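Homework-ish question, so no full write-ups if that breaks the rules, but can someone show me the predicted structure for this set?
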Amino acid sequence: MIERIKVGMADFNVVKSPGILVTLGLGSCVGIALYDAQVKVAGLSHIMLPSSKQIKNNQNKAKFADTAILLLIEKMMTMGAQKDRIKAKIVGGAQMFSSINNKNSLLKIGERNVNAALEVLNSLNIPVIGRDTGGNYGRSIELYADTGILLVKTIGHGIKEI
Amino acid sequence: MDFLDGMQLDVLKEIGNIGAGNAATSLSKLLSRRVGMNVPEVKLIQFNQVEMVVGGAETLVAGVYFEFSGDIQGTILFILDRASANNLLFLLIPNDFAEYDEDFSPLERSALQEVGNILAGAYLGSLSVMTGLTIKHSTPAFAYDMAGAILSVPMIEFGQMGEYALFIENVFIDGSSKIKGNFFLMPNVDSYPIILEALGVYK
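A: Not a homework solution, just the prediction itself:
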């Protein structure tokens, strides 16, 4: 049996080949998939908000792009991954209710989550080798630790591998 | 609990109860028939249990979304699973309703948005009467997608305050058809003190 680990909202996890990490129904949240191909260690983080620095109640580090990515890398390193080998793919950050067009709308949070994830990865010199972000629809993702392939499934917008 | 204490939660629950009463009355008028609405259940859930609300993160749900502004700001989300949406549409537009279509037609969408509009008006109306605050809401936005994706909108809103989301479960009953909806009323972080102060419970 191949290990299949679910990663919920404001959560992260890691797995070794041949395990699979799964997140269902990403909306404005962002899934950050990290992979070290040499040791076949995969990590997946499901963040809700861009930055722990803008929020008073920030104890749950898995909730924010800035703190979650660091924790995820640490956990991957305990399983043999090396930071300079890790590559990233990011998915999600949709605007689910696109017809409300208010510049200050909280609905823009998807885009802000994506930008925050890109910034954090960039500051850590982790290359982003694939992304499927934005739009106004949800996505489910599966990250395969034996290949590093990230499968993205949607309702009415097809299935793709990145 | 992290942001709301027990008393503040009770206040929000009471607003939910009164709002539900108003909503049942308004919905009866729209449908020209009596609508019974049971006492709504106000629940707190952790983010990682969000999919329990509707039976799975990939369950397809219809969502109607509003933003409100005035003395306080925030958002409202009303969600229905497909079976409930179908039962409701059958009551609203029996002649134009195609049960087996994959997506909702424009007419079906606007019918569901109108129900959302009535519910939002009923809840915000109760809140306004109880607090004396002026509140107006936007036109509705509609989405039909995976529950996890649609629920990420209120979860992120609550996520700025703590580790829990508050929602109100309404069951509208009309004869044999059962319509179950979930309603999220989410004042933004800065609006909570204003509401609670207006109600005289702010510490």
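Now go work out the reasoning yourself. Hint: Chain A has two helices and ten strands.
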